[in-house]
UniProtKB/TrEMBL annotation:
<keyword id="KW-0822">Tryptophan biosynthesis</keyword>
<keyword id="KW-0413">Isomerase</keyword>
<dbReference type="InterPro" id="IPR011060">
    <property type="entry name" value="RibuloseP-bd_barrel"/>
</dbReference>
<comment type="similarity">
    <text>Belongs to the TrpF family.</text>
</comment>
<comment type="pathway">
    <text>Amino-acid biosynthesis; L-tryptophan biosynthesis; L-tryptophan from chorismate: step 3/5.</text>
</comment>
<dbReference type="InterPro" id="IPR013785">
    <property type="entry name" value="Aldolase_TIM"/>
</dbReference>
<keyword id="KW-0028">Amino-acid biosynthesis</keyword>
<protein>
    <recommendedName>
        <fullName>N-(5'-phosphoribosyl)anthranilate isomerase</fullName>
        <ecNumber>5.3.1.24</ecNumber>
    </recommendedName>
</protein>
<feature type="domain" description="N-(5'phosphoribosyl) anthranilate isomerase (PRAI)">
    <location>
        <begin position="4"/>
        <end position="209"/>
    </location>
</feature>
<dbReference type="InterPro" id="IPR044643">
    <property type="entry name" value="TrpF_fam"/>
</dbReference>
<dbReference type="GO" id="GO:0004640">
    <property type="term" value="F:phosphoribosylanthranilate isomerase activity"/>
</dbReference>
<dbReference type="Pfam" id="PF00697">
    <property type="entry name" value="PRAI"/>
</dbReference>
<keyword id="KW-0057">Aromatic amino acid biosynthesis</keyword>
<dbReference type="InterPro" id="IPR001240">
    <property type="entry name" value="PRAI_dom"/>
</dbReference>
Amino acid sequence: MVAAKICGLKTAESIAAAVEYRADFIGFNFFRKSPRFVEPAQAGALGRAVPGSVLKTGLLVDDDDARIASILGSCPLDLLQLHGSETPERVTAIRAKFGLPVMKVIKVRDAADIARAADYEAVADRLLFDAQPPAEMKNPLPGGNAVSFDWTLLQGFRSRLPWMLSGGLTAGNLAEAVRQSGAPAVDVASGVEDRPGEKNLSKIKDFLEAARSL
Ligand SMILES: O=C(O)c1ccccc1NCC(=O)[C@H](O)[C@H](O)COP(=O)(O)O
């Protein structure tokens, strides 16, 4: 079994499906340009249906303290996912100011990107490896692009921090992704959707059942 996060949830039905099929994390996306964006107040209301056993994750991209404080005022969270270009110093500052665990996202194109995880080893609580959007991709978002990277780049990766694999995952490729990478946890947004931002409850079920079967 590998732990699983379903990211970009913004409806009661999709959250209920994630909880029913035992997601370990759910993600609220606070990046306004994303098709998965959810208003913090709405996320706060939705989050009240989430049991304490499922960690509510807030997805941020280079947000300042005022915005993070505003989000947390509307939506209690268990984990902050920093998906932008936050430096180790910025991660340290956010963690200290808000008193919440931080998952730093490392965007991967090649082996040098994996090595950059070491910069956050002493300051983050978790790591998430996501694909760097390909250079030719028109108007990519910082994440949620349904793009994967070479999972073998993570072979032999060791960290004192728990880490997740992300990027282009689906119920259909999950076993191979985990076999190649050795990931102990996985994360998905597009792979459980029919269209960007529109979650498919059966795909959520299939993804979470696939994660539990490994
Ligand atoms: O999902 C988004 O729209 C998004 C937008 C901006 C920054 C991050 C975003 N998603 C972050 C996630 O954790 C996604 O689950 C991850 O990038 C994987 O996405 P996908 O390849 O679509 O499964």
